[in-house]
């Protein structure tokens, strides 16, 4: 069992509170990803779990046992860092073996464990090489190997892929996910990359200013963001937001007379932010038949076009602000062209403009 339980866990540095009372239970074998912008307290939370940072208040339980005052070595948790901290002057075999430095295994058992780990990570033919002769991805795997070889109850990853190029990051993402499927070990993973969070997590914890904003499965956060921050953070490109006024269940944006009808009743009156994902905003021919459909209609001027092959991102300047819509790959509108876009009522999100909470 490697359940990790945080009860009112907090960290203060002088008068700065880096992490406010955090309550969270991470189940045995779960893959939990902490996301949030720089400085939101992700790493500090992870470092408290690892025992690298003192806990200011609250309790941390590992496998049901309070561990606030246990040092890192006694916690049976392995941490993999961003700057993968491998020793350049020794071989891959030795680098992985450092993970067993304090272990009481016999040297034959240690060798077997190192070989097994290397095999699992596809490093078996590289055991005698030094890090300088490895690619970035292979070096990252050595760092993971050093953590894995101890057979820890949980892995903590602190932005392990941020030093790698985009292609390698995508590849390592899959490797870490497969490793988790194979080992079934609890993983807590910190990143500011929402794609990593969406693709790897069983559950995502969204943090901001040292507080948890929302916890849920990736798809739940994508479909039901609790506030503007999560709505814009999860999903790429970010959700478009248009300001408007809500009255009698209808929304009007400031420069248009047509009210926007929703698919549900919201008894709110006042300023709102209307959210719509670029993938839900479809380019139309602007014909009367289309304009008569319920939902959101916007008319704007193309300001930027980003062809991605399978789809094209079209940036539109509107009287109400600016939005991004997606169009099929072969649709390449000209800059300055006038375009109409539409989103169905069920794809619209509404947030209170003041509290930024979902309505
Ligand atoms: P990043 O993505 O940039 O690593 P993060 O979300 O991991 O950011 P933390 O490193 O946990 O953020 O930092 C949270 C807050 O605590 C920040 O405001 C940071 O400046 C502050 N902080 C972190 N470590 C210390 C320290 N040793 N002394 C004082 N303040 C600190």
From TrEMBL:
GO terms for cellular component: ATP-binding cassette (ABC) transporter complex, substrate-binding subunit-containing. GO terms for biological process: carbohydrate transport. Its main location: membrane. It is found in: Cell inner membrane. It is a peripheral membrane protein. InterPro entries: AAA+_ATPase, ABC_transporter-like_ATP-bd, ABC_transporter-like_CS, ABC_transpr_MalK-like, ABC_transpr_MalK/UgpC-like, Mo/tungstate-bd_C_term_dom, NA-bd_OB-fold, P-loop_NTPase. Keywords: ATP-binding, Cell inner membrane, Cell membrane, Membrane, Nucleotide-binding, Translocase, Transport. Belongs to the ABC transporter superfamily. The keyword Protein biosynthesis does not apply. It comes from Pararhizobium mangrovi. The keyword Thylakoid does not apply. This is sn-glycerol-3-phosphate ABC transporter ATP-binding protein UgpC. One of its GO terms (molecular function) is ABC-type transporter activity. Residues 4-234 form the ABC transporter domain. It comes from the Bacteria.
